[in-house]
């Protein structure tokens, strides 16, 4: 699985040749090297990964061709109201989906993060892309049936914009799916400006396809943005960072459990005792960097606590909307309440684990994250 072969496969798949600016070759090379040397991929995992990387490269080719064919896309004005971030498993998904229910906001949808570019001769309803997204979600849950008890899958609902960033190969998705510590170290030190420039381009493409999004601001979400908070704020003028807070003592083991469920699709040698310490180090570093950005740019942040999301999700959502200058009206309240009711009906299964299952101890977590507990609003 070498870079030249992947590039050739993407060109053959699409019949296109122009990747445009090839800045992405550095992250792709770091990633593929780490996959080859560290990921312990199974035979199936290797094949799935090759297909995935080829598909991401094919989308880069299609993006370039689409923008050349439709230069008006570059004139689409993208306004991002908020990027929701925070550690994973902190209530950010529920908050994101509640805010996205507002008629005045919009979000990336799961099916379009998987298939963001129209197929040839496809109509505005995007029926083929939606069908593939449904099939993809069903297959994912067949391969990881326990995942439904950890995270609600909605093929047609709001989804993390980090999946669009996957096409830049600068994404936390990769060290969540695979054991790639060298890539993870590279990611923490990388300048992500080119990746976020392309994220804006992807949002332009999605907005161009759907005229109903005109005049609506985006509300986006991913823990990945903790790795590039300054870059997010520099890329999207007026964007607020909505930070969801939960004790890392609880959040880190929960995410390690989620990662273990995903990683087993690609490797038969997933060691859960490695996962906890790895993500504890990753998130310690991310939160320290976050604290520095927040101190320099305090006016760009809104805080939400996990406990409050559990007891008063609608009240918290309205409070955040007000902070984003959305004057909440009855249409907003009805939409938020309808989503909350649907979310309660969809939830099933249980998520059971202990820190020790993932090589962690509560006392060590409390000590390592004491700096965050002390400054968390």
Automatic annotation (TrEMBL):
A Pfam family this chain is assigned to: Sulfotransfer_3
Top-level division of the source organism's lineage: Bacteria
UniProt cross-references to PANTHER family, sorted A to Z: OMEGA-HYDROXY-BETA-DIHYDROMENAQUINONE-9 SULFOTRANSFERASE STF3, PAPS-DEPENDENT SULFOTRANSFERASE STF3
Protein name: Sulfotransferase family protein
């Amino acid at each position: 699985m070498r870079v030249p072969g992947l590039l050739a496969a993407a060109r053959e798949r699409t019949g296109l040749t122009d990747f445009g600016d090839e800045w992405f070759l550095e992250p792709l090379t770091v990633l593929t090297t780490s996959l080859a040397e560290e990921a312990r991929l199974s035979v199936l995992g290797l094949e799935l990964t090759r297909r995935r990387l080829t598909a991401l490269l094919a989308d880069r080719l299609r993006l370039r061709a689409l923008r050349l064919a439709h230069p008006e896309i570059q004139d689409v004005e993208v306004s991002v109201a908020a990027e929701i971030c925070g550690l994973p498993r902190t209530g950010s998904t529920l908050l994101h989906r509640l805010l996205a229910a507002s008629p005045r906001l919009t979000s990336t949808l799961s099916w379009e993060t998987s298939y963001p570019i129209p197929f040839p001769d496809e109509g505005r309803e995007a029926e083929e892309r939606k069908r593939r997204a449904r099939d993809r979600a069903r297959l994912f849950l067949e391969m990881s049936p326990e995942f439904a008890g950890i995270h609600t899958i909605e093929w047609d609902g709001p989804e993390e914009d980090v999946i669009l960033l996957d096409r830049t190969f600068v994404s936390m998705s990769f060290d969540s799916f695979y054991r790639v510590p060298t890539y993870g170290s590279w990611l923490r030190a990388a300048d992500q400006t080119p990746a976020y420039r392309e994220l804006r381009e992807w949002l332009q493409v999605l907005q161009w396809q759907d005229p109903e999004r005109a005049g609506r601001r985006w509300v986006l979400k991913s823990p990945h943005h903790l790795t590039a908070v300054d870059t997010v704020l520099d890329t999207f003028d007026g964007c607020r960072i909505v930070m969801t807070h939960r004790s890392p003592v609880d959040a880190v083991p929960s995410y390690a459990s989620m990662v273990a469920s995903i990683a087993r699709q690609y490797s038969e040698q997933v060691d859960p005792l490695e996962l906890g310490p790895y993500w504890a180090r990753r998130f310690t570093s991310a939160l320290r960097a976050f604290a520095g950005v927040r101190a320099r740019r305090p006016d760009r942040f809104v805080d939400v606590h996990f406990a409050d999301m559990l007891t008063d999700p609608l009240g918290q959502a309205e409070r955040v909307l007000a902070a984003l200058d959305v004057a909440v009206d009855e249409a907003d309240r009805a939409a938020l309440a309808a989503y909350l009711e649907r979310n309660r009906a969809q939830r099933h299964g249980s998520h059971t684990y202990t820190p020790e299952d993932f090589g962690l101890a509560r006392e060590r977590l409390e000590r390592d994250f004491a700096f965050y507990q002390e400054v968390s609003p």
